[in-house]
TrEMBL record:
Source domain of life: Bacteria
Membrane topology annotation: Multi-pass membrane protein
GO molecular function: transmembrane transporter activity
InterPro entries assigned to the protein according to its UniProt record, in alphabetical order: MFS, MFS_dom, MFS_trans_sf
This protein's name: MFS transporter
Organism the protein comes from: Anaerobacillus alkaliphilus
């Protein structure tokens, strides 16, 4: 890790990403509190996030194909500063006592258009400044840092909210996002292949899609990630009723359960970064992690014991970064630099759409047949998809491609 942090631009990106991740965790915390405190409606809490998801999807679909023609450093800075500036609005209105729910609708509509452009630009930028052999470790560092902020954020947000009020939470997230943008002004501007700015949206979109024809295993991995996001989208909103109703525990136990998931993800991220996997066995590792995740998801639906649920969710969390980090690294290695931004945008768009569809599926199944059956169904789906993926020609090509790359090196 130290060799990575000696690279100035990566070190600054890492610090900026940590600041932005903590700020984004604060924003989710503040939004949930403001909506529920203002309306008292669970429906309003879900509906307002639809605004963000819709805006996010429009942004990735429309602006994604143009990302590779824009300066990645400037896009990352713009994304963070736009968040800082827009959240200043509800901070001011709440402080003055004139806050209304439409303030958040406006903020989420704007940030939904700008903030999603940060991640594909960041992932593409990292692939430009680091050699290929360091990408997996770099992605592990970035991902584990984000998970640590996800662990720390709710606790810090709760302390700030209880001690000082929501104004301090909003002020902190504005400061964190502003700091992230300020740090990113210090990174270098690497050169990359010039992209024509005259090409139409459809031309640029087709160029991005062509990558999946050239490297079919990337399409297989993208579809696998979409299905996993659908599954997690079905499960995550049900964690609170699962703990409080199915297992009969309290909100405190729910918080510990969520923290245990985050702990597993941090450990999994670190393991991926520092455990060297034989490239020829990567397919087995990726699909095996999904099968293990599915088995312990079924276990969550079967166990009546809270202690076992904690163990199972840690293991499930551990498995999740194995597929996501390796997925990102393969994109960075095999996609041409001048196409990376739009290809990442397409992948993020697909996973963004899958998550609310999964939430809808999970809500219906849980309401009609119960949470236990939902967990078992989702676990079975994950296992079935992973086992089927072993026989996909596109994923068999992954082993062949990595074998050729290893021979070339």
């Amino acid at each position: 890790m130290l060799d990575l942090l000696k690279q100035k631009s990566f070190f600054i990106v890492w610090l900026g990403h940590a600041s932005a991740s903590l700020g984004n965790t604060f924003s989710a915390f503040a939004i949930a509190w403001l909506v529920y405190d203002t309306t008292g409606s669970k429906l309003a809490m879900g509906s307002i996030m639809v605004v963000f998801l819709l805006s996010r999807s429009i942004s990735l679909l429309w602006f994604g194909p143009f990302l590779d023609g824009w300066n990645r450093k400037k896009v990352m800075i713009m994304a963070q500063w736009s968040g800082a500036i827009t959240f200043t609005f509800p901070l001011i209105t709440y402080t003055l006592g004139s806050f209304a729910i439409w303030n958040l609708v406006l903020v989420l509509a704007i940030t939904g258009l700008t903030v999603p452009l940060y991640l594909p630009s960041c992932m593409a930028y990292i692939s430009q400044i680091l050699p290929k052999e360091k990408l997996q470790k770099a992605n592990s560092v970035i991902d584990s840092t984000a998970q640590l902020m996800l662990l720390a954020g709710p606790a810090l947000g709760g302390i700030f909210l209880y001690t000082f009020g929501v104004e301090v939470v909003l002020l902190s997230l504005v400061g964190l996002l502003g700091t992230a943008g300020l740090l990113l002004t210090l990174i270098e501007n690497p050169e990359f292949t010039e992209v024509s700015k005259q090409d139409s949206w459809s031309t640029k979109f087709k160029e991005g899609i062509s990558v999946y024809r050239q490297h079919s295993f990337l399409l297989g991995l993208a579809l696998l990630l979409v299905i996993l996001n659908f599954c997690k989208g079905a499960l995550f909103p049900m964690f609170l009723p699962y703990i409080t109703e199915t297992l009969g525990r309290t909100e405190f136990h729910f918080g510990f359960f969520e923290a245990s998931l985050g702990l597993g993800m941090v450990l999994g991220s670190l393991w991926v970064g520092f455990k060297k996997t034989n490239p020829l066995k990567l397919r087995n590792v990726l699909l095996g992690s999904v099968i293990i995740d599915g088995i312990f998801t079924i276990g969550l639906g079967l166990t009546p014991l809270y202690s076992l649920a904690i163990l199972f969710i840690v293991i499930s969390g551990f498995c999740m970064p194995i597929i996501t980090i390796n997925n990102t690294t393969l994109y960075q290695k095999f996609v041409e630099p001048h196409l990376l931004g739009r290809v990442f945008a397409v992948r993020i768009l697909l996973t963004t759409i899958a998550t609310p569809l999964g939430a809808l599926f999970g809500g219906v199944v849980a309401e009609v047949w119960g949470i236990n059956l939902l967990f078992s169904l989702v676990g079975f789906l994950m296992i079935s998809v992973a086992v089927s993926a072993f026989f996909l020609p596109s994923l068999r090509n992954l082993s062949i491609t990595l074998s050729k790359e290893k021979t070339a090196v």
